[in-house]
From TrEMBL:
Protein name (Swiss-Prot/TrEMBL): DUF4867 domain-containing protein
UniProt xrefs under InterPro entries: DUF4867 (IPR032358)
Amino acid sequence: MLELLQKKNPTYHIYQVTDLEFDQYAKIITLSDTDAALAALKATPMPKQDNEYVASDKTLEQLALSTTIQNKLFGGLPIQVGYCNGHTSKMNCLEWHQTPELNWFTNDVVLFFGDVREMSNNQYQTSDTKAFLIPANTMILLYGTTLHYAPCQVTAQGYRCLVALIKGVNSMLNDDANQAQSALLATDKWLIAHAESHEANEGAVVGLLGTNYEVKI
């Protein structure tokens, strides 16, 4: 898979999660008794095009695995567990939170990562990102310093991704917070968009500069 993807996408290097470069952005999480949760994740709806993000899904939140994630990875803080499913293939945007984010994938995907500490005036060069092939059934914890966005599919089947965050992340802003920072789009969600993205057309800050990388399959 990696060799074929790299051949079709020669303009950027695709790393593996076992490469040392991955450690700057996230770490692999291993939890037991995931079969029921994986089946529930695979049963979540798949859009025919683009992607759909649901911040809180009651079926996923009631799983024993979600309690384990809350206690072992978020120190017992209340969390929300949802999903991001779809067929996206371009970088388009980078977002970040002040808190970690857990992702778990049913399919192989490519994720583009950056580091918020390398940003300047809400601008970031796409050439400073790194692309990683994340194997199916891999669970990763993204650090709060990691710039990231929706996965990119590597097959026509698309992807399903469980997303666990501190409860309230991505919820609607109050008026004071909304006026404080232009890149702040939702609670604990900062985002910069590429000029080619639909997010930019909807008013997001255009701060992602350079080539809007696409994963060709």
